[in-house]
Amino acid sequence: MTITDTSAASTGTASEVPVIAHWIDGALRPSESGRTAPVYNPATGAVQARVALADQAEIDEAIASADAGFRVWSGYSIAKRQSVMFAFREILNARKRELAEIITAEHGKVVSDAMGEILRGQEVVELATGFPHLIKGAFSENASSGIDVYSLKQPLGVVGVISPFNFPVMVPLWFVPIAIAAGNAVVLKPSEKDPSAALWMAKIWQEAGLPDGVFTVLQGDKLAVDGLLESTVVQSISFVGSTPIAQYIYETASKNGKRVQALGGAKNHMLVLPDADLDLVADQAVNAGFGAAGERCMAISVVLAVEPVADDLIAKITDRIRSLKIGDGAGVDGVEPDMGPLITDVHRDKVSSYVDIAEADGATIVVDGRGFTVDGHEEGFFFGPTLIDGLPTTSRAYTEEIFGPVLAVVRVDSYDEGLALINSGEFGNGTAIFTNDGGAARRFQNEVQVGMIGINVPIPVPVAYHSFGGWKKSLFGDAKAYGVHGFDFFTREKAVTARWIDPAARNDGAQGGINLGFPQNS
C-alpha cells in the first residue's frame, strides 16, 4: 500500500518523488505549506520521497479535527470501542509483513527486526483490547448514612504523541491504542525521517471502524511539535527521544498545563561477574549492542567486565562480530543480513565522531566500523559494528549516548566498582547483570539506580502489562509508558458523593435542615 500524495508543492521536487501527506479527518490531506523534508532509503542513500512539514494552519486543522473526533468517540459505548480495538488488532496481525517492509524501506532495519518491533507493539494493542476492567471506577455504598461515594474514569480529550525515528511503529503503539481505548482522540507527529508507517496505521484504524478524526497524523518538524505543546486543546503529550528534547518537551508542555510522559536517552551498562557464562554473555552483548544497528534506547553500549574475564570476553565478542553480515535490511534473494544501515549520513558521521573521540582519549579500537561500505550500496549509510577496549570513563564516548553499533568494554575490579559506575551516570533507563549467583543478582536489583533491570537478560523491555520507563534523566513527567501507568495517564478521575433523599424520611423531618458546620460522616 502506497500512502503518498504527489500534488503538494516541495520546492521543485514533487514531480520527481512522492510527497508524504498528513492524515486529517479520515483522509490524506495534501500539504499547502510549501515546506518538505527528504525521506531517504538508508541502504542506498537515495531520496525516495519527501514529507510535508505542516504550517500553523495545518496544525490548527489537525487539532480541530481531533477535537471533533473526540466528541464523537467519547460518546461510544465501551462495548463498541472494544469491538474497534479487536478489529484493529486483527488487521494489524494479518498485514504486519506489509508494515514491516514499509519500516525497512525508510528506516533501514532488517525486515525481521521490523517484524519484531511490530509484535512488541502488538502486545500493547492486545492489552488495550481488555481495557474495560482497567478504566473501571470504584464504588463505596453507604460511606456515610444514606450517602454513596464512587469514582469515574474519563478520557482527557485530544492527546499528542511525538514519536522517534528508531521505532516508527512500536513507540506509537505504546501510547495510541491505550489512549484511543480510553476514549481519547490522538494526534500523532511521527519522525520526519520515516513517516509512512504512521499513515499505514491510520488507514487500518479507519478500516477497523474508528471514526474520522480520532486518529490524526500530523507530519512536521519543530513547528508541529511546538503547535502541540502550546495548543489549549491538546491535554497531554507523550514523547520518546533524546534527553535534551525530552526535557524541552516536559518543561514546555508542563508550562502549558498538560500532562507529560517524556522518555529520554540512555547509556545502558551490562555488568558481567566472573562466574557468568561468557559464551552466553558474548552472544547477548552482540545482540544487544548491534541489533537495530544500535539505534535503540535499550541497547547495551557498555560492558563492565569484572576481572579477570575481560580478555576472554573481548575475544569471544570479536569472533562473533566477524561473522555478522551487514547489508540492505530488505535482503537479497530472500536472504536477510544481520544488521542494516543507520538512518542518515549525518547520524552515521556523528556515530563515527564518537569512535574518533574514544581513540583520541586513549581507548583501543578492537573492531573498527568506520568507513564501512557494502558492495553495490556504496552510498548507503552503513557503519560497521565497533568494539572498544579500555575506554576511559571520563571520555564523552563513555558518558554520552552514541545511538549506533558501538560497544565498549570497561574493565573493573569488583561488583561494587561496576555498580558505582552505573549509579553515577546521569541516565537510568536500562541495565543488566550476568551471573550465576542469585544472591548477587538480588543485591543488584535492589541497589542499582535504574528503572528497568535484566538478570541474564540484556534488553529488559517490560511486557505490555507492566510499564516501560527509566529513572533520572531517562524519564521526565507523570507516568511511564503503557501498562497500568498508561491507562492512568490517559484518564482522569472524578469522585462523586451522592445522596438520594427518601421522600418519606424528608416529610418526617429525619433528613435535611440547616447546618453550617463542615460535613461529617455518621
Describe this structure in words.
- This protein is an alpha/beta fold and 522 residues long.
- The protein has 2 domains: 19-264 and 474-493, Aldehyde Dehydrogenase, Chain A, domain 1 (3-Layer(aba) Sandwich), CATH 3.40.605; 268-464, Aldehyde Dehydrogenase, Chain A, domain 2 (3-Layer(aba) Sandwich), CATH 3.40.309.
- Helix content is 36%, strand content 22%.
- The protein is built from 16 helices and 23 strands.
- The protein has helices spanning 56-73, 78-94, 96-107, 111-129, 170-181, 196-207, 222-230, 243-255, 278-290, 310-322, 345-360, 396-399, 415-424, 438-447, 483-489, 503-507, and strands at residues 19-20, 22-24, 27-29, 36-41, 46-52, 139-144, 147-155, 158-162, 185-189, 215-217, 234-240, 259-263, 268-272, 300-306, 364-367, 386-389, 406-412, 427-428, 430-434, 452-455, 471-472, 475-477, 491-499.
- The protein has a 7-stranded mixed sheet, sandwiched between helices.
- Helix 2 runs antiparallel to helix 4 (111-129) and helix 4 packs parallel to helix 5.
- The chain is globular.
- The termini are far apart.
